[in-house]
Prior knowledge:
Layout: H1 10-23, E1 28-32, E2 35-39, E3 45-52, E4 66-70, H2 75-83, E5 88-90, E6 94-99, E7 102-106, H3 130-138, H4 149-156, H5 160-171, E8 176-181, E9 184-189, H6 192-202, E10 209-213, H7 220-231, E11 236-239, H8 240-247, E12 256-260, H9 265-274, E13 285-289, E14 301-303, E15 306-308, H10 311-319, H11 325-335
Parallel strand pairs: 3-4, 4-5, 12-13
Antiparallel strand pairs: 1-2, 2-3, 5-6, 6-7, 8-9, 10-13, 11-12, 14-15
Amino acid sequence: MKQLSGKLHSYERDAFQLLKEALAPNASVLQQKPGAIVELEGGQNLLLKFKLWGQANPQPNSEPGSVWVLPNATTALRDRLRRERESFVDLRGAVFLTFPNLLVDRVNVKRPFRPTLASRSFDPFADRSSLVARTLLNSTDDRERAWGVRELAEAAGVGPATVTRSIRALERYNVVQVRRAGRNSEIRLTNARALFTLWTGAYDWTKNQGVAVHAPIGDPARFLRRFAGTLGPRRWALTLQSGASLVAPLASWERIHAYVDVGGPEDLMGIAGQADWPVGDEGRLVLMKPHYRDSVWHNVRKVKDLPVVSDLQLALDLWHYPLRGREQAEHIVSTQRLLG
């Protein structure tokens, strides 16, 4: 069978190479755009169609031959897809295929030498560099907006070099378009949903360091007003379900999650100690040192006189939150027109 040619997105090339590695030497894998053809013993062929896991398809889609491509999946997401019998290739080195006459479940598959987005030395979703993506997503109401490098750097509050490296990384995944003319460049966000999808694959709220405490919450609104006094001049903001309840309420919630601008987890313990709040895993107040030390504060706003992180940060935090987090995140994306 002749191998098909054509320009493939980088995530498709990586998925194809991982399939070849995972199935060798028991089956042959030929390139298909976008996807692959698996030649099984006995002359049977199976056509696989790659589909980037995205906000546009929040629920699994069992279309025949579909294989989800996950740029940087969490263990919880992979386990969920396995339970729902959804085939996937995780670009970090996991392959799960469930089709008639073909069942593959492998981890630690050798990745291609060319690094993927998740393993590149420069991460566009790191703390400071993510300010570029945040700024682009904030401009989704103006779909035709073209940014210059320095203009985007100024808006994001980062240096031009950070913009250049971030855009190069995102350009490989066809979520931005760059038109170059000499030394000047015009940058456009072309696929906000795909950009958000890549980000949710690279980020998990559990990266935040937190301390759960048994605080006398009672009525949450009254408690939070007292809580602000407990923190004094420290910068803080609500997130996860407690933050979402003030912006676009949907799911019920029992715990308050709050980012606090501190130097380390020991400072969170100090806050709890000063307030005489016992530390315990079941505590209804969770104080968190943000993984995004700088960018988490981007577009924090007051809602009912309480600081809440941006809609984008809420959606990112909620995406992998186990208690109706994905449902609440999708509600925020939809009602707040986060992706235009």
